[in-house]
Amino acid sequence: MQNLNILVLEDDPLQRLVITLALRKVMPGHVHEAGNGNEALDLLNASEKMDIAICDLKMSEMDGLAFLRQASQNGKLHSVILCSQLEPILRQAAITMIKRLGLNFLGDLGKPFSLERLITLLARHQRWRQNPFTLLTRFELPTLSDIVRGLDNGEFEPYYQPTVALADTSLLGVEALVRWNHPQLGVLPPSYFLHVMEQNSLLDRLFWPSFELGLALRHTLAQQGKPLNFSFNLHPLQLASLNLTDSIASMAALFKVPSSSLTFEINETGMASVPAISLENLVRLRVMGCGLAMDDFGAGYASLERLCEIPFSQIKLNGSFVRKMKHHPRSSAIISYTVTLARSLGMSLIIEGVETAEQRRRLQELGCHAAQGFLFARPMPEKHFTAYCTR
């Protein structure tokens, strides 16, 4: 383990002593101690840098929250480990605040002290230090010319992620997701290219080839006795097209795919203001028999109002609620509420982001029936998905 500069901010002398003694035993470097935020800020200002602050939040004089806010401004503090007995909802809000301050949050040490937990969190910092950039910043985002070249060369390809029944993991449907098979950088998700496409009116060039390939696959599977429901993502900007619904209907007829087997997912965060032409297209899709799913439900700010205005038939709950479920009691309450809401509105509900067997079990207890997530299957290219279906 590399030498570290660590600041322990804890107003309880015994707890502070336990942490500092443990740190000096398990890691090389320097350990600094402070009993309140003012002392901690003085130590930080006097140092060249501080790798980690192990921080209590509730204390006299300057508390941990104020210290972290001021510490984030001088750029000397890299990472934070919380050591607090605040109730879960307050601790979760503090974690969100830390991340928005631009600090690297390593985790919650909790109380009473655990040496094993401390070693785990220190190891996280070492991994972050060796690779401080996320996947999104390892290289420059693609240029417009690179994206156009990729479109011209057919490098954008639909990947398919199954939707399954939580009870027995039987296959209920599939979502088509576009990936970029970049010749140098490998398989890239939409976060690399979607923003550039939005700004340069390239969304249709992305959507229609993927839609056509998805329809062809659906037709093939139906001939094999597997008539699945296929979901496709529509960007809110595309809803303003006068030809949208006619083009969808024509292509579905060409591939002999019934409209009732198609669902179009609309991201909630892009639906703050819906123009009349977009509403017309959404109504037409429902009249045709297609499903409409509110994607990432709960991630925006006007979910319930949108449910009243737009003829959605399905809710897809944002995966953040599943990830927080174990340590954030309100997340379980929100999932339970969404189950009841969907049932009351006559909508189907899909839970996104299921990654562990424990999450699956808890979701079943809360009344959930359908889900997507890495526990069941990751998005996969067509040939892998076809093999998945035959299994």
From TrEMBL:
Residues 140-391 form the EAL domain. This is EAL domain-containing response regulator. Residues 5-126 form the Response regulatory domain. Pfam families: EAL, Response_reg. Keywords: Phosphoprotein. It comes from the Bacteria. SUPFAM superfamilies: CheY-like, EAL domain-like. Coiled coil: none annotated. The modification 4-aspartylphosphate is found at D56.
